[in-house]
Amino acid sequence: MTETEACADSPYKWVSTWGTAIEKCDITPEAMPCIPLGGTTVRQIIRPTTTGSRMKLRLSNEYGGSDVKISSLHVAKQVKADESAIDPATDKIVTVGGSESFIIPKGGRIETDAVIYDVNALENLALTAYFAEAPETDVTGHRCARATTYQIKGNRVTDKSFDESETRTTSWFFLADVSLWVPADSRAVVCFGDSITDGYGTDALYLGRRPDSYTRWVDYFAKRLQSNEPTRHVSVVNAGIGGNSMLGAWPTDAGKDRFERDLLEHDGVGYCIVLFGVNDLEKLSDTEKYYLLKPEYERMVAIAHENGIKIYAAPIIPFGNSSHYSESSETVRNMLNAWMRSEESGFDGVIEFANVLADPADSKCILEKYTHSDGLHPYDGYEAMAEIIDLKMFE
Fold this sequence. Notes:
- The protein has about 400 residues and is of the alpha+beta class.
- It has 9 helices and 22 strands.
- The chain has helices spanning about 5, 195-200, 215-225, 255-265, 290-305, 325-340, 355, 370, 380-385; strands at about 10-20, 25, 40-45, 50-60, 70-75, 90-95, 100-105, 110, 115-120, 125-135, 140, 150-155, 165-170, 170-175, 175-185, 185-195, 235-240, 270-275, 310-315, 350, 360, 360-365.
- A hairpin with a 2-residue loop joins strand 21 (about 360) and strand 22 (about 360-365).
- Helix 4 packs parallel to helix 5 (about 290-305) and helix 5 runs parallel beside helix 6 (about 325-340).
- The longest helix is centred in the last third of the chain and has 18 residues, at about 290-305.
C-alpha cells in the first residue's frame, strides 16, 4: 500500500510545488553538461512555490538510451543565489525504496521516498547527486532552467561548496517534479507554453541580466499567489519550452504530443494556463493553419475538463515587429484569439496578456519598452503580464 493509499481519508495530499517540461538537452549542445555526468557530482537549484514539511521528487530518464545510476542524492538549502554553497545543517539524504543508491531506468521515471523536510515557498533548494553512470547523449532534462547548475568531478554531495574546478551550465538534468504533502484544498497551476513562458530574455547578458533572477512571468505569478492569503495554497509548475510549437517537433515533442504528459504527470493539478501557438504562426502565407490549430486547443480543453482541471486561455500575444510576422500570420492570430475569447471555445476563462503587452498605437506589435526591438519576446513585460492575472480565478 502506498503512503497516499494509506492516507486516503487524510486532509492532506501530494501537490506539485515545482516542475519543469522535460526534453532532450542535447538538441542544443550548449545545454549539455560541460563534462560527462558519469563520475561527477551535480548540484541543481530549484525554487518551490509553496510551503510544506514533507516532500518527494520525480526523476525522469524518458529520452535516455541507458540507465542513470545515482549513488547518492541530497537536498539542502542554497545559501545564496548564483553560488554552489549550501547550509550543511539543512542537508538530508533522499532515498528510493529505502536505498541511498538507485537507478532511473532508460525511458522511465521514478519517484523518491517521502522526505521529512521543511520547504518554504520561494526559497531555493539545492538537489545534489553523485552520478555513478549516466548517458552521454540523449540526456533528459530542461535546456533553459535559467538557474545555475554546478558540476564537479568525484563524489562531493556533502560538500558545503565546490571549488574553482566546478563547471556551470543553465540546464536541469533528470529533474521533473517536486511535490509536497499539503492540505487537501491545495492545487497546482500548470503554465503550458513556449519560450515566453520559459522566460526567454530574463538571463540576457546584453541587457545586463543573468541566470538566477527568477523574473519570468511565471515567477512573478508565484510571488503574487504567495502574497495573497486566499491563494497561498496554490503552487505553480512551469511547463514552457523555448521554440516549441503545437504541430512541429523541434526542439522536442510537439505541443499537441506533450500536453497530456505535462498536465497530468504532476500531482494535484487544479488549473492550467495555455499561452501557446505563436511558433506555429511564423511567416504564414494563408490562413489554413487556423483549421489545424483550433482542434488541438479543443483537445486541450477536453483533456483538462475530463480530469477536473480548469483551463484558462491566454490569447497569443502580438509580434508585428518580429521576423515571425506576415499579414496571414496576424489574421490567424486574430482568428484564434477571437475563438479563445468566445464561449464556443470551452475555456473556463481568459487571461489577457496580449492586451497588456500590445502597443496602443499599433495593436499588432508589443510595446517597445517591453520587447527591446525583439518584437516577439516581452523581456521587460513579464511582471506586467503577471500583474494582470485575476487571482480570484485561483481562489
